[in-house]
Design a protein that fits this description.
NAD-dependent epimerase/dehydratase family protein; 15% strand; NAD(P)-dependent_oxidoreduct; globular; seven-stranded parallel beta sheet; single chain; Epimerase_deHydtase; Rossmann fold; NAD(P)-bd_dom_sf
């Protein structure tokens, strides 16, 4: 039995589809029936009969932050893919980020140890990788610098520490650190928001850039690592490093709109995050742009995936074809 936590998210739903299609016996947690419908929608992008596959999953209603109701998730499980994560860059969300990303991961690690899980794969993020002051490609060896990190990045890094702690207590683990994950089905969050923004023919793009990877490549790397003899290692998963302008230039034509042509200036960003801070503190509104995120928009961080390529002879898929697939699915919706 394979357990996938967070199976109703972008990576988790695609992982479930791959595992079920491979004939694996799979269990996943969920929080509401509506979240399972999202999985059914994702499956529908790849098959004409998504319901039959969804019904093959052993669904257990459970919240990983509530330790008391998690034992049923782990009974008879051999392998765990831990995909659950809360994404927010609002400093006011630090406590809930810590509860979900750090305490939730600690619960998964502790129960994996308790039930003798053979191997655990944790989905982290490049946000938990240290930046490179020398302007060369970031690798898994970069030193962590909390002072430059977002609240999301801090909690993902702290969650990684829980996973490494589990390895010291005898749990076989692997960690993946994907870049911005490109995949269909979640158009209001993560990379999906880029497609939504571009589809409106917006004129402005943010400066800087980062690493991008397809959800299919993330799933492929995770399953290959779990089936290998590799353990106690972390791997950056980035297919291509791009500026945000380059990314919008790829997706806009496929959405039949013009790409944004005006770069948001440093002055505009500096003004906006200060206004956003005042708005949040005076009126209790959610932050749209924190200081840490604003600072990160001024440069392009490049990431190296040489380790995964070397260790697994891993080949990334054609990113342009994956982007075109996402655009087609977005138009269909």
């Amino acid at each position: 039995m394979i357990l996938v936590t967070g199976g109703t998210g972008l990576i988790g739903s695609h992982l479930l589809f791959h595992l079920i299609n491979s004939g694996k016996t799979v269990r996943s947690n969920y929080r509401s029936k509506a979240s399972i419908e999202k999985v059914r929608k994702v499956f529908g992008y790849y098959t004409d009969d998504p319901s039959s596959l969804v019904e093959k999953i052993d669904w257990v209603q459970a919240d990983i932050t509530e330790l008391g109701n998690l034992d049923n998730l782990f009974i008879d499980v051999d392998y765990v893919y831990h995909c659950v994560a809360l994404i927010s860059f609002d400093p006011k969300d630090y406590k809930i980020l810590e509860r979900t990303n750090v305490e939730g991961t600690a619960n998964v690690v502790n129960l994996s140890l308790k039930y003798g899980i053979k191997k655990l794969c944790y989905v982290s993020s490049i946000a938990a990788i240290g930046s490179n002051p020398k302007q060369t490609e970031v690798t898994e060896e970069n030193e962590w610098n909390e002072a430059k990190a977002t609240v999301y990045g801090i909690t993902k890094y702290e969650a990684e520490l829980e996973v490494w702690r589990g390895s010291q207590e005898g749990l076989d683990i692997v960690v993946v650190n994907p870049g911005v994950v490109i995949g269909p089905g979640f158009w209001k969050s993560g990379s999906g928001s880029f497609f939504t923004y571009a589809s409106k023919g917006k004129k402005y793009y943010i400066p800087g850039g980062t690493g991008f990877v397809t959800v299919s490549d993330v799933v492929k790397a995770m399953t290959m690592l779990m089936e290998s003899n590799i353990r106690t290692e972390g791997f950056i998963l980035v297919n291509q490093n791009m500026t945000y302008k380059e990314f919008f230039d790829k997706i806009a034509p496929k959405l039949e709109v013009s790409p944004p042509t005006k770069k948001v200036s440093k002055f505009m960003i500096e003004c906006f995050w200060r206004w956003d801070w005042a708005r949040s503190n005076l009126f209790g509104k959610r932050r749209k742009l924190s200081k840490a995120v604003a600072k990160g928009l001024f440069h392009k961080e490049d990431y190296s995936s040489e380790k995964i390529k070397s260790e697994l002879d891993f080949e990334f898929e054609d990113l342009d074809k994956a982007i075109e697939f996402c655009c087609d699915r977005f138009i269909e919706k």
